[in-house]
Structures are given as structure tokens and as C-alpha cells.
Amino acid sequence: MYDIDIWNQIVTDNNYDKENYGYNKMIQQIETSPSAAVAKMELIFKNLSFERMKQISFSLKKESLSIRFFDLNKMRYVWEEMRINYQLSDIEYKKVLNFISLAERKFKREISVREAEIAMSILIFIAKQSFEWKEINTLSNGVSNSEVAASIVDNEESTSNEVYEKLIDENKNFMKALTVLQSSSKESVVNADSFGQFRSYMHVERSIETEILSVLESAQKKNAPSLIMLCGSVGDGKSHLLAYIKENRPELLSNFSVHNDSTESYDPKKTSLETLERVLSEFDDNITPSKSSLIAINLGVLHNFYNQQRSNGKFGELCNFIDRSEVFHQSGNAFQEDSQFKLLNFAELQPFTLESNGPNSEFFLNIINKITDNHPLNPFYNAWMKDKENGISTVIHQNYSLLCNPKIKHSIVQILIEAMVKEKIFISTRSFYNFIYEIIVPVNEITQTQSNFDLIKNSLPNLLFAHPDRSQLLKALSELDPLKNRSSQKDEMITEFLLSQNKQSFINDKFKAIENQNSGIPNIEGISKENYLEVTKLLIRQTSLLSDYESNESYREFISYLFAYYTGDGDKISVLFDLLKDVVFSWNGSPMEGYIFTGSTNKEFNIAVPVHLVEDVDETIFGSMNGKESIERFNPYLKVGFNQDKRYFFELDFALFSLLKKIRKGYRPNKQDIQNALQFNELHEKIIKSAEKNNKILLLHKKTNAMYEVSKPRFSNAKFEMKKV
After folding, report:
1. Which tens digits make up the pLDDT trace of 337-387?
2. Measured distance CA(639)–CA(620) in Å, rounded
3. Which residue, of 317, 347, 377, is where some domain finishes?
4. Residue 79 predicted with pLDDT over 70
5. Higher pLDDT, 689 or 430
6. Residue 175 belongs to some domain of the structure
7. What is the pLDDT of residues 681-694, one digit of tens each?
8. What are phi and psi of 228, to 5 degrees?
9. Contact assessment for residue 86 and residue 53, using Cβ atoms and an 8 Å cutoff
């Protein structure tokens, strides 16, 4: 296929407007306005990215990522996940990064024609990979590739007893034991049905586990077969829990047909939806099932199945049950049941909780404890101790020792939560294991003869904050580097260090004052004056981790509003609406109280319309967790808006909240800000359109600042009346 054919096929497949997105039109726009052309290409890139992920995950028989992760601001993270977990080719990955870099430049400077041409050629390359995959994998029955690419169930990784035995072998050292935490480790990925002793040790209980066990125990007491569906998205732990139950409570599954691994029932001659229909065939209308079934299923696949069966007029009772569960809505029930069907929803189940005094994550903390605890079944601790007994001590041993510190554990957990909220990143259990590996093990080769300077550069605090190029998660954490948050206390500590006569004694005293112990203190013997800057960086980072965790005011405010929204604290949310109202009036500016400028391009006048804003929330979500002290089912944003003859909502996440606070203080949003605040900008435009139906406007003369009120009289033959204000 020629480039023009590939491009026009992209436009056709995604139902884009050919007048605006066609090949010739895009070439023309590249020549006249390359930055605007690249902005258009970003939407195409997002859809191509999602399609490629589904194709690759299908080929590997892995769960596909949810569409909610494909935010334009997070595409680096998404493709990084695809590279690590979906075996993406280096060529495609490098081209993708090039496109993302080009797209990010458009708000910093004008993009050249040549750069826009390169961006278009990259999209054509990605589309070509997609089309070639379709040619190879298209099935003879002609079912759509999007259905083929969707996976039925979770397919999380697990670790076998054989790997576990290797880890606790006395002849294996600590470094080798840690490799099982790596996402890329072959040893960490084996059959999900074989839970094994290692995974049993690493298992961390969550509330959803109690719910599943309760449902299974209840089903065992009933004579009639039932269908239990565990619904969610990739990485949420469905498969892990099923494997755990199989190993530890097998009696609960004795009367169930369990469908967990997509390879169990996969038939290359059938699409995923056809396979799912066969799996659920006994639960079609007017059929008496012979056995209960338990299935872990992706919400996207369930939605496709639901739409198909509604269209075909089959599985009516099951579809009605799905309707009642509202599982496809943000406010859907966590658990729904009737006499035959039961549904547990993993969606919106976060790895951290919201509480009145701030966020917390017992889940992340318990995993770290599993890795660091002095326990006979802990292969990491045992290997670390064995090395220690044999006189082996490297930077990874020192970093592990730091990770054992409760204060550092707490700080790491809080930093991760802050990154998840601020950057909207998703951290699966597998990603979290890999993260622990990355903050213990440096990139470079480890030897026992490392200098003190090398030990400092490769220490845990520096691995945590100073390696944004290593992964998208570490890139997000680098934005929370304590070095980026200056304070007089930090400046004073740096000055005291540089002026001290005995710098090692200064460091010893500083850490003893915080920790009251000698372990984990950096040794700076032999470090030259030229490298003192690196010492001060470690000093700031490590003391910050060892001190009470401090987040910035905007983050604490946002978390408190999020908790108030779900618990229904109207007084608290009213304060938030004060902010939102102020920004609505200052977004384009306001000539006087009750009016906002429309942003009109009239050369002589600025036009303002009257608005009357009534605060509005989504009642299905607001107060849905009233009375709860700890919330683990939520989205990291608030659905809020205004009612002006019609309800207008937008999703307020941290990034937008932070921007709106700046605007309230007088900051004027630039093009990139408006792009990032797209939902709020659309809300503002809808409010203006609604207000334009009013029979009154204000005109502000640009040269003289004279203001006129133009209105349509109710009982007069005149079309308009104008008076000076």
C-alpha cells in the first residue's frame, strides 16, 4: 500500500471527517500550519496506540490495557508499559518516542514543516504495522479485529515452586534473588494456575478477597448452579486471587467451572466473543445449567458481549442483570447478585485508600514488608543475610538495608500515591515489584570494589529520584524530587555541610538526630571537593525520606476535596465551588459581576454575557461513601459542574485543580494550558452558548472602555435597546 492509501484507510477505519483528516488535506495543513497539523495527528496517534496494544496483547495472549490509560498526556507511560510487558519491537518504540517528542514541542515553539512530515510518516509506519498484523490474523469468518484483539480474562504472572526453590538455595546470592522482581525476568512469568510457595508467601490480603470468599461460600450452600463474574481491567488482581483460592481454598471451587486463563478455552477458529458465548451458553435463557461457573472478565469484553447479545436477542436475563448492576457506569455497584447471577466489580478499586487525615496504602506497604521481613520463607532477606555472613556487601545490600527502614517505607508509599494522583499513572502489582527492583539495583554493573562516590550515586534515594529515563514511573517520581522543593531549612543544611570542618561528623550527627542510629549513614571518605554537590543531593533526599513526609498544599487540598466528595461533605465542597466560580469568571475575563467575556474576535468590542451558575455534582457518586472512614473504590478526580438551564459537568483531576488555583491568583492560561484543561474549556464554552440565549449582553469598547448594555425589549417593536452602563 502507498502512504496515501494507508492514511486514507486510517481515516476510514476511525470514521474521521475526510474533509479535515484526508491525506491531501493533511498535506496541505502541514505546509500552511504544521503545529496545528500535528495537534490533529495526536488524536489519530491515540487511537492507533490503543489498536496496536490490543493486537500485541492478543498475540501474546495477555490482557489488554483499558482505554482509560490512553490519555494524550500519558502516552509515554503507555508505550513504556507495552515495551516492557508486551515485547514491543525497539524500532516501533523508538519511532513512537520520536512522535511523542515532536508533539510535545508544539506548545513550546512552532513546529517546522519537516517535523510535521516526520510525525505523519511515523503514524503511517504504526498503521502499516497494524494493517500487516490484521492481514496475518484476520479470521475467515470476517469478525472485526477489535473483537479478535480483545482478551476474555486476566492473565497475570505468577511464580512457580521451582523458581522459589532457586531463590532460597544457599548457593544463590542476593542479586540473583532480586531478579524475580523484574518485569523482564523470564523466571517471574509462568503458568498462572500454579500459585506456588513463593506467591503464597508474597500474597497480600485485600478486602475484595474477603468479598469473593463470602460469595463462593454462599454459593456452596445453594443447590442451584450460579454464574459468578469477576469484572475489571488488566493488572487489578483477579487472576492472582483466583490462583490463590485454587491453592488455599480448593473446596470452594469444587463445584465450579473456572475460566481464568484465556488459553483455557481459546479456539483459533473462534473470536473471543464467540468463545465467551460458548463458555456462558448454559446461562442463556430457558436453559438449566448443569454446573456453576466462575469467570474473570475484562469490562470491555463484557460490554462487547452485552451489546452483541442485546442485538441478537439472546441471554436476556443475564443482560438484564448486567443492566441492574450498572457495571458500565462510574457509579456502578461493587457487588450485585440475584438468584442465579453474581457480579463483583474490581473497577475503581485502588491500591491506596482515602482517609480523613490523608491517603494511605496498606497494600503497597505490605508488599514491601513481604520483601524485607525477617521470615524463614522470605528468599530476599535470607539471601541478603547469607551474603552478609559471607562478607559480601555492595550498594544493593546497602539499599536493601535502607528499604528495611520503616520511615523510608512510609515515605516511598506516600510518594507513590502522590505520583498516582498527580500524574494519573497506573501501578499494577507487577509494575510495583519492578519498581522495588529499580530502587535497589543500579543500572550499572555491581562490584564489591565500588568507591564511596559510586555508592552515593547508586544509593536508594538517588535511584528513586534521579533516574527519570529508567521507567515512566521513575520519571513521575523525579517530579517529586525533594531537590525541586527548596526551603530555608534545606539551604541552611547545605551551607552548614559545605562550611563544616569535619564533614563526615556533620553527616553522622545529622542522621543520628533524625534516626538515633548509625546504620544507613553515607560514608564520604575519599570523596573530592568537586563531588560535594552529589553528597548534598543525597543528604537532602535521604533526610527527606527519613523525616515525616511533607506534600505540597495543593495536593493536600485536592485529596481532602476528593475525600469530601465521596463522603458527601457539602461544606467542604462548597469551598471548592467558590474556586470554580471564580475561575469561570476569570477564564476569559469579566467586565462586571455576573458577566463573562465570550472571547469574541470582534475588532471593536469585547462581548460579555450574563451567567447565573448553580453548583452541581453527580448525585450517584457524591456521598456514595458517606460514613466510611477509609475509601478504596474511587476515581482520582471529581465530577463537578454547573447548572444553567442545563447540567454541565467536567472531571476535575489534580493537574486541572492546580491550574485553576493559579488562574484564580491571576495567571493567564496559554495554549498548552487550554489544551490540558480541555474539559473545563468546553464547560466554559457551553456556559457561554447557554447564556447567549439570554436577551441581554454587554459591549465593552476596546479603545475607550465605554460599556453598553444591549437588550431585546419584551414589549416594544424595537429589535434592540442600547444604553450606556
Report:
1. 787 899 998 877 899 999 999 999 999 999 999 999 999 889 999 999 999
2. 10
3. 347
4. yes
5. 689
6. no
7. 999 999 998 887 77
8. -115, 125
9. yes
How many C-alpha atoms does 514 have within 13 Å on its Cβ side? Answer: 21
Does 520 have pLDDT greater than 80? no
Note down the domain range covering 48.
Answer: 3-149
Joined together, the cell numbers standing for residue 440 give 535497589
Is residue 408 domain-shared with residue 541, that is, in the same domain? yes
Secondary structure (3-state) at 684: helix
pLDDT band for 619, please (50, 70, 90 cuts): very high
> Has residue 612 been placed in a domain?
yes
Count of structural domains, the chain: 4
What is the distance between the alpha carbons of residues 267 and 74, in angstroms, rounded to a whole number?
34
Looking at the domain assignment, is residue 572 inside a domain? no
**Angle made by CA atoms 396, 400, 405, in degrees to the nearest 5:** 150
Contacts of residue 399, defined as CB under 8 A and 6 or more positions apart, other chains included, come to 439, 440, 441, 458, 459, 460, 463
**Distance in angstroms (rounded) separating the CA atoms of residues 506 and 532:** 13
Interaxial angle between packed helices 570-587 and 678-691, expressed in degrees from 0 to 180 and rounded to the nearest 10: 80
- Nearest alpha-carbon partner for 675 in 171, 116, 10, 71: 71
Same domain, 207 and 260: yes
Find, among 446, 439, 361, the residue nearest to 404 by Cα.
439
- Beta strands (DSSP E) in 507-629 are 595-597, 605-610, 614-617
